[in-house]
Write a structure and sequence with these properties.
Blueprint (H helix, E strand, L loop, with lengths): L1 E2 L24 H10 L5 E5 L1 H4 L5 H15 L4 E5 L15 H10 L7 E4 L2 H10 L2 E4 L7 H6 L7 H9 L15 H6 L5
Parallel strand pairs: 1-2, 1-4, 2-3, 4-5
Helix pairs in contact: 1-7
Bound molecules: magnesium ion (MG) and zinc ion (ZN).
Magnesium ion binds next to loops.
Length: 190
Amino acid sequence: MLFDRDGTLIRDVPYNGDPNRVEPMPGALEALGRLRRADVPVAVVTNQSGVAKGLVSPDEMDQVNAKVEELLGPFDAWAICVHDDADGCTCRKPAPGLVIRAAAVLDVSPRDCVVVGDIGRDMEAARAAGARGILVPTALTLPEEIEHAPEVADDLIDVVDRVLTDAEGPVPAGARISAPWARTMGWSRW
Ligand SMILES: [Mg+2]
Ligand SMILES: [Zn+2]
């Protein structure tokens, strides 16, 4: 499962380079814990144009990301775009590059990924990569972004409820091939 960072995993503090200002979104820690216990890989797909703009140094960004992992636990992959709109890169959401890159690191198809984000760009990136998109709106999410979202959840707990459904029973050792969550998420290679 691929998460946007700002406004999704942590509170959106525009162009934040200060790890002390990192604050998890409600339910983030619990949601991630449930996914990890269910053996669902978790990754971050994040636009960080503050780096291209010179507002956040790469080192500050690294410190903020390290704080995110300190507060929310380790992620299996980080895919970060440090460009801005004018750079014409293939990774800045709504382009699909970050989703494709994170899926490659996790060694799964983008089609077997769920992208969770708070704005339309996240949902566009998911759609462009062939992934399932789930929008978790905040006060900053535009009404038309909610209207056009393929799926809307109340919060991160609701997201996990939707994805895991009844797949959270204990998985016996060696039973990974038939793990319930694998069927739920359509991870065909498993
Ligand atoms: Mg966001
Ligand atoms: Zn980029």
